[in-house]
Amino acid sequence: NLPVTLNTSGSYYLTTNLTGASGEQGILINQHNITVDLMGFELRGVPGSASGVFVSGSLSNLCVRNGVISGWNSRGVSGSSARNSQWLDLRVSGNSFGGLEAGANSLVRGCSVAANGGTGILVGNLSLVESCIVQGQLGDGINAGDAVRVATCNVYGCGQNGIVTGRGGVVVSSITVSNGANGVLAGDESAVADCAARQNLSVGIAVGQDSQVRNSLALTNGSTGLELGDGSSARGCTVRQNLGTGIRGNFNPAQRCEVNYCVVSQNSARGIDVESSRVTGCLVVSNATDGISCRRSTILENQCVGHTTTFAAGIMSLGQSVIQKNVCEQNTYGIYTFLNSLGNHLEGNTVIENTIGIYITGGVLNQSRNNLVIRNAARGNGTDYDIYSDNTVGPIVTKASIATNSNPHANYQF
Asked: Can you tell me the distance from the alpha carbon of 339 to that of 358, in angstroms, rounded to the nearest whole number?
């Protein structure tokens, strides 16, 4: 019968289901070096009962495995003070204040955690959470400390974030769907790879400073698809149909970031929004406003297609950017320097079937000056080049004059 207090190191196992008592813990672990095998049986709480498994004090080398812990008035497993311990193959559900809590240096593997109040799985620093399924928590699905690895986990329908990690965390091969805040929220110096974040209410995947996101999906989330902290990078990601910008920084343009070989499409604001950054080899299609918005950045070898709302551009620069070897097709503006944008270098771009191919604005209050425009090519635009006079521009050469033109800086109409 419960409650049971384990005061001696050793191995224990169940031979039947056990039911708790009001006001009592289920199994109270009071010593180091204890293993409890539930043998597939259930620890069942009752109204007013405490936690199914409770670790008393700062203990280490514990293992609880292979069973069901449900219906407790506090937590299924209350082990936040346990270090260097293992929680394996547990089914934890219907507990009022949380599912499974473990301390630092923990291993949580193969657990199914459902419909608990609070957080589903909570672990301390330097832990590993793998092959777990978490759904329907009132709080976060998985919340981890610093330097924690979360691998091959599925988190669905939780009231707050899907997966949260602290500084130096790694999230790999995991899926977050329909959570009430962010899909994946990782701290500074983190890595996210081979993950999918879909239909979360806020940001799909957000990482802190100096982090990496690789080969991941951010689809149909309620805000930004992929949010990068300063000095972070994204590579090989697909970011589509999010209700904000596809890829940006933390409520601002991404700062000192690198975005490479991503597909960014049909987002409800800009496709990619960066500052002091580099964007290379991306396919940016049919976002609601600009394809790529940049300031003091390098924009190289991207293809930007189908940004057709009023004033939308395939690439829009706020100044001091190098924009080279991009293809911009079927936008309102192919490449657009906005307002008093200064010091851009536009070279070797191809603009096709835009309303205006390359548009460098002029006027009394809106003068883009001191820009360099050379070696670009334009075809089938309503206006190929509309460039304010106070800029450095190579001559515009047509098919009629190309044979006799020798200026190496010429721009072309074809």
From this structure: 14
